Task: inverse folding
């Protein structure tokens, strides 16, 4: 039952062969078994979840028409605000912060009568690719407990892979949904920038951040994405583009689809087992009538540098609000205001966050702004133009999601640059604001491999159709890790 | 190290000397990688701040009452309806 699809769960809830309370019992039982091994959750919302399940069951009992997602349990990354509940961002500085309001996405889940069960672990302030940067301890990969689940939304990916929940929410600034989805063998969707409101998402890099779903299948992910999208006046960057009916994309049809495969992401930086899995996936799609060609995206070379200038620059500004005055950790021995700022921040932030604040402050500082920040903004234009050129020829781009399968915990701990390279295929997508998703496309030595589909801006529909078609031909997404 | 100290001061951080040396080495490696931007032809390109930009929209300027912002709950120190902080000057 913990691995049942959303439409099937809905049918069973509707015909009352299953109650929302039963469904919670089943998933909390998975939580009890997995959490001591994974440490994927920071808070278990048991009381609230059962209270909500009672309300949902009462409506189903009355025979009231209920949305598809009603009564479905979900996990929420701990940088998304839920009223009256802690939002820690896996940071000591926000260890005891209680959110005074709901993020827009939480309001949208409430409108669907979904049931939040868990707040999930993450890299502190979403800065990282392994979830090792959590101030509350690393999360482990359910496929191999000695390995990282990816990051920064590693907790949200791990709980879906383990069957603790059918769905979860993550955030993606440079790959933080797609890379952990790849490492954990689940589907992770980053919508077009502006598709999903960022109101109530604790800001890391505002021009890049997007909230998106994790699921086990493209079909389930499309249903959750539908619920999340839409214009929001509370987010100045929220798009007013109409949201299509994504369920119409759930048809196995890729005939005539033109796929570009950037050759820069098929080079020596990508492991052979990953490349082999992608070639097999391309063969399958070709057999269904899709066509693919190699395409050159020269600007990808600038992706990592551009991102690690722009994202820390924005982060250094966004995180200046954490000063120990209004909320969060405060040093109590400081005798002046400035000393209190410095000590509170020095004690409250972990090493990766400090590293990025320093980097961001440096590239924005007088004398270095033109050499780094301005140059990176121009490189961002180059990357966007490269994507536009590619999409004048192709409907989709296909790349590996990550260069390798999940790496060992601690493997990159002392080498931040090596860790940053884990996002080499995902970062350009955020810089261009495009939609993309990772779907499982095979296994190597028992570890999942993910492929990334990148769509045109606001064309999640084509991406979902291709992903759905692929999953009708394969069973990688149906495999589950064993305890 | 002068640049690092200056930036640490600007960023309002307090970092132990031995940690500064670690950060300095790591940041030099990261900045070294960024040199690849200097090898690219970026002339004639306009800087970009966002991925997709749409026309701005406006919302009604309506006062919204927040009955409980949990200010007192989250404040490190709260006195007489205010955030209490150490003295700013002598």
Result:
């Amino acid at each position: 039952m913990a691995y049942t699809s959303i439409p099937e769960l809905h049918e069973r809830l509707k015909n009352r062969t299953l109650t929302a309370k039963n469904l919670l019992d089943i998933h909390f039982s998975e939580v009890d078994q997995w959490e001591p091994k994974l440490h994927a959750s920071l808070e278990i919302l048991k009381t609230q979840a059962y209270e909500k399940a009672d309300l949902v069951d009462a409506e189903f009992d009355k025979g009231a028409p209920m949305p598809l997602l009603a009564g479905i349990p979900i996990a929420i990354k701990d940088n998304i605000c839920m009223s009256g509940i802690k939002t820690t961002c896996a940071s000591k500085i926000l260890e005891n912060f209680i959110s005074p309001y709901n993020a827009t996405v939480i309001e949208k889940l409430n409108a669907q009568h979904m049931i939040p069960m868990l707040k999930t672990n993450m890299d502190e302030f979403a800065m990282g690719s392994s979830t090792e940067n959590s101030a509350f301890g690393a999360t482990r990969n359910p496929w191999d407990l000695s390995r990282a689940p990816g990051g920064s939304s590693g907790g949200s990916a791990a709980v879906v892979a383990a069957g603790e929940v059918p769905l979860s929410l993550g955030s993606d600034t440079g790959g933080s949904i797609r890379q952990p989805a790849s490492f954990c063998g689940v589907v992770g969707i980053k919508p077009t920038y502006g598709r999903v409101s960022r109101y109530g998402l604790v800001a890391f890099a505002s021009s890049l951040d997007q909230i998106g779903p994790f699921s086990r299948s493209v079909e389930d992910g499309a249903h959750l994405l539908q619920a999340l999208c839409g214009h929001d006046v509370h987010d100045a960057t929220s798009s007013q583009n109409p949201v299509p009916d994504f369920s119409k994309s759930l048809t196995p049809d890729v005939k005539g689809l033109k796929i570009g495969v950037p050759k820069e992401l098929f080079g020596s930086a990508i492991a052979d087992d990953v490349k082999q899995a992608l070639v097999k996936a391309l063969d399958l799609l070709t057999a269904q009538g899709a066509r693919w060609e190699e395409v050159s995206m020269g600007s990808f070379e600038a992706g990592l540098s551009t991102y690690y200038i722009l994202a820390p620059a924005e982060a250094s500004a966004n995180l200046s609000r954490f000063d120990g005055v209004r909320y969060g950790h405060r040093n109590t021995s400081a005798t002046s205001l400035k000393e209190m700022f410095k000590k509170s921040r020095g004690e409250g932030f972990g090493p990766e966050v400090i590293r990025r604040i320093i980097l961001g402050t440096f590239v924005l500082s007088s004398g270095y702004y033109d050499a780094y920040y301005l140059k990176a903004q121009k490189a961002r234009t180059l990357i966007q133009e490269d994507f536009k050129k590619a999409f004048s020829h192709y409907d989709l781009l296909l790349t590996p999601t990550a260069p390798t399968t999940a790496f060992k915990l601690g493997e990159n701990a002392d080498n931040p640059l090596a860790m940053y390279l884990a996002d080499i295929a995902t970062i350009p997508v955020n810089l261009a604001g495009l939609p993309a998703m990772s779907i499982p496309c095979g296994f190597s030595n028992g570890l999942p491999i993910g492929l990334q589909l990148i769509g045109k801006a606001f064309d999640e529909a084509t991406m979902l159709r291709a992903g759905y078609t692929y999953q009708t031909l394969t069973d990688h997404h149906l495999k589950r890790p064993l305890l | 190290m002068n640049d690092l100290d200056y930036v640490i001061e600007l960023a309002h951080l307090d970092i132990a000397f031995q940690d500064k040396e670690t950060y300095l080495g790591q940041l030099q490696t990261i900045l070294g990688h960024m040199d690849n931007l200097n090898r690219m032809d970026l002339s004639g390109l306009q800087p970009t701040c966002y991925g997709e930009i749409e026309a701005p929209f406006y919302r009604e300027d309506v006062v919204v009452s927040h009955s409980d912002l949990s200010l007192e709950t989250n404040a490190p120190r709260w006195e007489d309806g205010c955030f209490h902080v150490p003295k700013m000057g002598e």
About this structure: Chain B is about 35% helix and 5% strand. The longest helix of chain B spans residues 17-33.
